[in-house]
Amino acid sequence: MTTATPAYTTHTANNYQKNNNLFPQSNLITNVLSDKIKTFFSLNAEDTRLENYGNLNTDYVYHKEKFDFEISDIVRSNNNTKRSNYFLKTQKWFGHITEIKGAVIFARLDDLNDFTTHEIAEFDIEDIPYEDRELISIGAGFYFSIGQSYDSNGQLERKSLIRFQRTIPWDETNLETILEEADNLSNKLKWE
Amino acid sequence: MHRHFHHKYFNNHQMFKEYLETYKLVIVVLGNFNPSIVHPFWLAHKKLIREKEAQNAEVEVVHKEISRFNIGWAHFEITPQKFQISTTQEPYFEPVRDLVVEIFKILKETPIDSFGINHLLYFDLRDKERHFNFGNKLAPLNNWNEFLNDPRLLVLQITERERKDGLKGTYNIIIQAPDIQIASGFGAMININDDIKCENLDFVKFFTENWDPSFKKADNTSESIWNKINN
To answer: What is the DSSP letter of B189?
Structure first.
């Protein structure tokens, strides 16, 4: 019996356990589960679609003693199946460009986790994503983060991200509102 | 005494951060929306996302009743009553805030009743004992031994009906099993729903003003829960 499980099985298996409340979606380790089930039911290698075995939940409940594994055993050892789009242990800054010198930009970075500290940093323009380069100008704001994430093979990677802040241009109404707010604020200020 | 307290706080804080596996943010806005307007290419056209992100977006459906798509770092779901954006990547929390703000600056006539800044914190508790204690500390399980064999906590929801901070809305804390994969299999989630009614106030302004306080409060709340469980 092959141990390879096509990608679609992951999807099917996820749906299967979700729809049948066999155990929490978070705990599914597709390959381990499907191989164990295939072994138990002596399934053909080609036929890995769990949805073809709709009575699995019932079978597990009523013939628990026949299974040579516990569901609680299955829910471990899934280090390689962590989703790749989760970003962990992040440190974040908000940057303002203070100077542009050739292919290098200088910026003030304010720590988003600790507003009392800031740093000055320089970045090569080639490190800025291509589509964000049109946003480079003195005073432009950007987010800079470092952290970890897992790749699709479960390998932990350290990553840094730069993303320029995207806001719609001010129109006359916006400016009027801001001026009005500034006036209100100014009227509230008391000089002693 | 003081040093001991400080040391303990430091240890708990470090432990909290160490066991915190993932932080998911879900922004929910309730009002009256037109789902078919919000589309990846509309966002790119307004220069709120990159052109490439619109091209590579996974569009599930764009229809007058529902619009659902993923631009890689944020997932959108819009129905006539609900506008929702979520991300599982902390570096994009502020860009998600910017998206919400900019979208509703454009759609400024949209009537909005309330919004939720929902903080979903996923912990990898790593072993069976810590996993059991997580539920047992919050809802002592021996209270249930009389009726149930080997009782376990699955969901616990506590709500604050009149908010301490004076805002209208509710503050809900839900402790539950995680809905994502956790490496060890021993996961737990603290789900904090910060639901605020905006009534006739300017949504963009109100949402922006409440952003930082919501994160600060969620941080304090989740860490306090963690400390109660692990003391």
So the answer is: E
At A120, which helix (H) or strand (E)?
A: strand A118-124
- The answer to whether the CB atoms of B91 and A145 lie below 8 A apart is yes
Q: What is the dihedral of CA B208, B210, B215, B221, to 10 degrees?
A: -170
Report residue A119 as tokens.
Answer: 């740093």
At A37, list the tokens. 């089930």
pLDDT at A26 over 80: no
Question: How are beta strands B82-87 and B75-78 bridged, if at all?
Answer: antiparallel
Nearest to A166 among B48, B181, B182 (CB): B48
DSSP 3-state of A77: coil
Contact A121, A95 (CB under 8 A): yes
Asked which of A78-82, A103-107, A166-170 is least confident by mean pLDDT, the reply is: A78-82
How near does any CA of chain B get to the CA of A71, in Å?
Answer: 11
ipTM: 0.86
Please say if the pLDDT value at position B220 is more than 70.
yes
Chain B CB within 8 Å of residue A189 CB: no
**Contact between A86 and B180 using a beta-carbon 8 Å cutoff:** yes
Check if A86 contacts B (Cβ < 8 Å). yes
**CA atoms B142, B145, B147, B152: torsion sign:** positive
**Minimal-distance CA residue of chain B relative to A113:** B216
* A94 and B CB contact within 8 Å: yes
Rounded distance, CA A73 to CA B4, Å? 40
**Chain A nearest CA to B191, separation (Å):** 15
The per-residue pLDDT for A144 is 93
A14 touching B, CB under 8 A?
A: no
pTM for this predicted structure? 0.74
Amino acid present at A168: I
Give the residue, A132 or A152, on which the prediction is more confident.
A132
β-pair partners for A107: A97, A121
Q: How far is A112 from chain B (nearest CA, A)?
A: 10
Interface of A with B in 40-59 (CB under 8 A): none
How many other C-beta atoms are found inside a 10 Å radius of the C-beta of residue A173?
A: 10
A90 touches chain B (CB under 8 A): yes
Residue A1 has pLDDT above 70, yes or no: no
Token output for B23: 């932080």
Residue A111: strand pairing partners = A93
User: Which among B73, B171, B173 has a CA at the least distance from the CA of B121?
Assistant: B173
